Amino acid sequence: MTQMMKAARQHTFGGPEVIVYEDAPVPELAPGEIRIRVKAASLNPPDWYLRDGYRALPPEWQPEGSFPLILGTDVSGVVDAVAEGVTGFALGEEVYAMVRFPEGMMGQSMGHADYVTAPADQVGRKPATIPHAAAAGAPMSLLTAWQFLIELGHEVLNPFQAEPHVPVPLKGKRVLVNGAAGGVGHLALQVAKWQGAHVIAVASGRHGELLRDLGADEVVDYTQAKVEDLYRDLDLVIDCVGGAPAARFLETLARGGALFIVNPLGFDGHAEASRRGITVSVTQVRSNGAQLDAAASLLGDGTIRVVIDSEFSLSEAAQAHARAAKGHIQGKIVLKIA
């Protein structure tokens, strides 16, 4: 008899209303995997992009989908089962993970459910001192910041560039983080600060107090001032918003500086960057349990903390997607799962 669980699923692409809370089969273990009883999960941009069928991408890049879909890469929970031959994880152990990203985003059962399976090497040990909601908010955003700024951790090229991304030393450098209040931005800010950078955080004014509390040395309200009018000779800009507007940051950077773009789609400033002697680089975040383990102590002792924008129950997943659609997210949107 098939064991069942509750999940947030969709049977077609569309808006938040296509997400339904219903019964689904508990995923079965495959070799090399563990199964996690999910206690909390978070939403990330790939979740709402896939829910909508990636309509912003060129048609040839849009997925066909394999319905029903269960979204959600980021989870925190406890080990429920371990495949034969997998070592290092005990039943009941608290773990967190970014599950099968990017390879599993087109139809496999993911984390917005009572249970999820994950390759063991994608799973990290959850810090005991933080709640599941905070741990669930970390993986994709923190791994993105980590792989851009600390260690790439994989050899897969981003389709937007022909060479591997290479992080740059941050100690003593002037680093600007655009979109600093968002999921990736608020963690990139803290990672850069931990590494000894002087951090300039760019966001709307309502986030100023939070960003200073997270360690920003300077805060710029983009609704009141243009960054390109304020700064010159920066060492690094990490643009967590990206797209075509990222080109404006080239004039803020020193020759020999770098512009890292989390979302490079639409950026066309490569010729100008070359003329100015600026490195432009991108990468695509990939699951990495060892990096989550490396970051766990920083989460555990509060050096890096996850800001929660809002919390919903799993049955309210559609409302969580509606919250994401409103934008101006401060930190992470989290689903708490009973």
TrEMBL record:
Note the SUPFAM superfamilies from the entry: GroES-like, NAD(P)-binding Rossmann-fold domains
* Pfam families linked: ADH_N, ADH_zinc_N_2
Q: Name one GO molecular function term.
A: oxidoreductase activity
Question: Which organism was this protein described from?
Answer: Celeribacter baekdonensis
Q: Which CDD domains match?
A: MDR_like_2
Q: Which PROSITE patterns match?
A: QOR_ZETA_CRYSTAL
InterPro entries cross-referenced by the UniProt entry:
ADH-like_N (IPR013154), ER (IPR020843), GroES-like_sf (IPR011032), NAD(P)-bd_dom_sf (IPR036291), Quin_OxRdtase/zeta-crystal_CS (IPR002364), YIM1/Zinc_Alcohol_DH_Fams (IPR050700)
What name does the UniProt record give this protein? NADPH:quinone reductase
Keyword Oxidoreductase appears in the UniProt entry: yes
Q: Supply the Gene3D superfamilies for this chain.
A: Medium-chain alcohol dehydrogenases, catalytic domain, NAD(P)-binding Rossmann-like Domain
Keywords, A to Z, come to: Oxidoreductase
Give start and end of each Enoyl reductase (ER) domain.
Answer: 14-335
